[in-house]
Design brief:
This protein has about 750 residues and is α/β, with parallel strands linked by helices. Among the domains are: about 10-135, 3-Layer(aba) Sandwich (Trna Endonuclease, Chain: A, domain 1), CATH 3.40.1350.10; about 145-315, Rossmann fold (3-Layer(aba) Sandwich); about 390-560, no CATH class. About 55% of the residues lie in helices and about 10% in strands. The strands form 4 sheets. The chain has a 5-stranded mixed β-sheet. A 5-stranded parallel β-sheet has the order 7-8-9-6-10. Strands 11-13-12 form a 3-stranded antiparallel β-sheet. Strand 4, helix 3 (about 95-105) and strand 5 (about 115-120) form a beta-alpha-beta unit. Helix 22 crosses helix 24 and helix 31 packs parallel to helix 33 (about 645-655). The longest helix is centred in the C-terminal third of the chain and has 21 residues, at about 665-685. The protein is globular. It starts with 10 loop residues before the first helix and ends with a helix.
């Protein structure tokens, strides 16, 4: 039998659950009645005037028996006036025999026996008798202890280190909508889903609910933080896996993927599509995805539309908008005086129908940390003001409430990866904050970093342990949006971040932020500082596994080629005649590297492609850089260090540029392909079925381009694969369909009046 406490349900949720359970148990249809105007009625079944059943819901899971008894006493005269044939009391409070006897006597003769008094144990019993209703009410099982433990032990949620209660509250605020059903259907059919929509519409929330759904179904779930290559490292373990890549093209603007990431992403999608055991969730803002399709060759060729789920305001019916606001207020913990002020002037009517309604703004304006400095009587006005102008949400807090050190910390965090180890963030902060404090005569102490974190945590940033490290991130995507827009409008701050950068990736991230600004004065500063720190380690950490299976954060290793490509993207934004001095130094780094190292061949072909396309300023196919990189790409093809993906990149370049690769090199590619194929077939039986097929498909594609035959036929591989049909989707998350249509003022008043208690 289930064992729920029902504390995560709002009064409205409990009423709907009660309706469904009583209807199923008694085989009748119940009518819903309005809160606050019900005369003691929440639900009613009326066959005729003499055969009326009234059901009263009392959500007192957080209260005492004494409080419930007082509330019931006030209902006695109402029920006596209605004189129903039968009166059923349902409560989320545990009910002892003595308590049930008291209720029966108080409401005699309408409450006929103890069977008509349902407490928390009785509700769980009914759920056991009607499991289909448990599946429909996802908040029950989403917030159960087993699910929460799986969430906490996964590496998906940015706040995974938070307490269970925090995650439970987060899930409790979720309201399903039509996009849930669409996304689930796409994921089941295509094995990957691209969730898109405008900022703040609920893309991430939808994705996270689908992740939780798959955790419940036994999937291993992984979050990709910065590069799809991170997913490849743990792909193909033989277990059901789901990968989640939030804002995979960038947050506020299109980021140029490194090292042909668009091509590698498409290869990864192909492997997922062919697998019965893997799923992939991607999210992106609409306008960024559209930019990517225009600029990135791989995504231009790809047809992502069949797997695209667009979340729009149309998915948020008035009923759903009202439930989202209701749930956030109920679970917020903000003072009752604030909620009462909202109710007194019925501001919820305007909020629900506001043209700028956004789940993100609702979340922010019901966060106790955001409203702590707002007087109760001013709360409705502040809420509506932030709907009228969402920028106000962070502008006042940032400009008026934060110390200089805290402001500087936010600027530094914006220049770093979405999730960063706190020790790296501190290093970048000290390099930025100390000179800035001296320049502007701001007070500073050795403890500014720690004090800034304490000031910002919970409102602007989130901090927590993760796989042996402490990491830091923005508390809410809208905070990063605000800070990045601040940098666009305040180039002085951006330039000071650039000249104090301690990690090269800080400069590339700032370039992504400032790339569409008309003022290009920041570019020379970027190139000069980039060269000064060209060979320093990256601040980007990725999750990796040791042989023991332990997952830890490790610094991403970037080659001089990757650094040079990032450097070139910045230089391409400026006039070429101003770049010569910078480019000669950057090219020297790469040439020195090519003389002493064995580079990744896929990186080399990416560099060669960029030079041929003219996207590397001041470098042509006749320059030393191109000639050296080309020679290095095709030398020592018999090296065992060349893996299948690298060889694929070499063949692809040879196919695209027939005049750049001579017959002798093509013959060597053909010869070495035999060794590569034998090498892969020797170990292919060590892979699970999905990876075997993916590897064979890649080999088959290369063989076709080289005009050779594979030594092993596809039929032989297929015989070794135990194909399982796509599993039936047993998700308990439901279709997401909710009641549509409008809500009258009376309907809204009825729902929100219950928040007064």
């Amino acid at each position: 039998m289930p064992n729920y406490s029902f504390e995560t349900l709002s009064p409205y949720d409990l009423e709907v659950l009660t309706r469904d359970l009583v209807q199923a148990e008694l085989g009748i249809r119940l009518e819903n009645f309005a809160h606050g105007r019900d005369r003691g009625i929440d639900l009613r079944y009326a066959k005729d005037r003499l055969n009326t059943i009234i059901v009263q819901c009392k959500h007192y899971a957080r209260s005492s028996w004494a409080e419930l008894r007082r509330a019931l006493q006030t209902d006695v005269p109402k029920i006596q006036a209605l004189a129903p044939r039968r009166y059923i009391v349902v409560t989320s409070l545990p009910m002892t025999p003595d308590r049930k006897d008291w209720v029966c006597k108080a409401f005699a003769p309408y409450c006929q026996s103890a069977v008509d008094v349902l407490g928390v144990e009785d509700l769980n019993n009914l759920l056991g008798r009607h499991p289909e209703i448990e599946r429909q009410h996802y908040k029950l099982w989403l917030t159960s202890v087993p699910i929460l433990e799986r969430i906490l032990h996964s590496d998906v949620f940015a706040d995974q280190s938070s307490e269970v209660e925090h995650i439970r509250r987060r899930i409790s605020r979720f309201v399903s909508n039509a996009s849930v059903g669409r996304a689930r259907e796409i994921l089941s059919k295509h094995h990957f889903c691209v969730i898109t929509g405008v900022p703040g519409i609920g893309k991430t929330t939808l994705a996270e609910m689908l992740v939780i759904d798959h955790l419940d179904r036994g999937f291993e779930c992984f979050r990709v933080w910065d590069d799809i290559g991170d997913a490849r490292k743990v792909f193909g373990t033989g277990r059901n896996q789901l990968f989640y890549y939030d804002d995979f093209l960038g947050r506020t603007g299109l980021r140029q993927p490194d090292k042909n990431e668009d091509e590698r992403l498409l290869r990864f999608i192909r492997d997922v599509v062919q697998s019965n055991h893997h799923r992939l969730l991607l999210t992106s803002r609409d306008y960024i995805l559209n930019q990517a399709r225009s600029l990135l060759e791989g995504l231009t060729r790809a047809d992502l539309d069949p797997a695209r789920c667009v979340v729009s305001l149309a998915d948020y019916t008035p009923q759903i908008r009202a439930e989202i606001l209701y749930n956030h207020l109920y679970h917020s913990g903000i003072p009752q005086e604030h909620i009462s002020a909202l109710l007194n002037i019925r501001a919820y009517r305007t909020i629900v129908r506001h043209r700028n309604y956004s789940p993100r703004i609702v979340e922010a304006m019901t966060d106790i940390l955001n409203v702590r400095d707002i007087h109760a009587e001013a709360y409705p006005t502040a809420f509506l003001a932030n709907l009228d102008n969402p920028r106000k949400l962070w502008e006042v807090a940032y400009g008026s409430h934060l110390t200089n050190a805290a402001q500087n910390a936010l600027l530094v965090v914006a220049s770093l990866a979405d999730q960063i180890r706190i020790k790296d963030a501190e290093q970048a902060f000290e390099a930025f904050h100390r000179p800035r404090a001296d320049l502007y005569h701001q007070p500073s102490t050795p403890y500014d970093w720690k004090r800034a974190l304490k000031e910002l945590e919970g409102t602007f940033i989130a901090i927590g342990p993760s796989h042996g490290d402490i990491t830091i991130r923005f508390h809410n995507p809208s905070v990063r949006d605000f800070i990045e827009n601040h940098l666009k409008e305040n180039l002085t701050d951006a330039v000071e971040l650039i000249v104090s950068a301690v990690f090269p990736d800080q400069i590339t991230r700032i370039q992504r932020i400032l790339g569409d600004t008309t003022d290009r004065s920041w570019i020379p500063h970027s190139l000069r500082r980039f060269l000064e720190i060209f060979d320093r380690p990256s601040s980007i950490a990725v999750l990796g596994r040791f042989g023991t299976g332990q997952t830890v954060w490790r610094t991403r290793v970037e080659s001089p080629i990757a650094r040079f490509m990032a450097f070139s993207q910045i230089a391409a934004l400026a006039a070429p005649q101003n770049m010569a001095e910078f480019f000669s130094a950057a090219i020297r780094y790469v040439l020195d590297y090519l003389q002493t190292a064995v580079p990744n061949r896929a990186e080399l072909t990416t560099l060669l492609e960029a030079i041929l396309e003219g996207s590397i300023p001041l470098v042509s196919r006749t320059d030393d850089l191109y000639l050296t990189a080309h020679a290095k790409a095709y030398e020592a093809l018999d090296s065992h260090r060349i893996d299948l993906d690298e060889f694929d990149a070499l063949v692809d370049f040879a196919d695209k540029h027939l005049d750049e690769v001579n017959d002798e090199i093509r013959e060597r590619l053909t010869k070495e392909f035999g060794r590569i194929a034998d090498q892969e077939f020797d170990v292919i039986d060590q892979y699970d079925s999905d990876v075997r097929l993916a590897v064979y498909d890649q080999l088959e594609d290369i063989a076709e381009r080289l005009g050779v035959a594979l030594p092993i036929s596809r039929d032989v591989i297929m015989e070794t694969i135990e194909y399982l049909p796509d599993e039936e989707d047993h998700s308990r998350l439901g279709t997401g369909e909710r009641s549509g249509g409008g809500m009258s003022d009376g309907d809204l008043d009825s729902m929100f009046e219950s928040l007064r208690r």
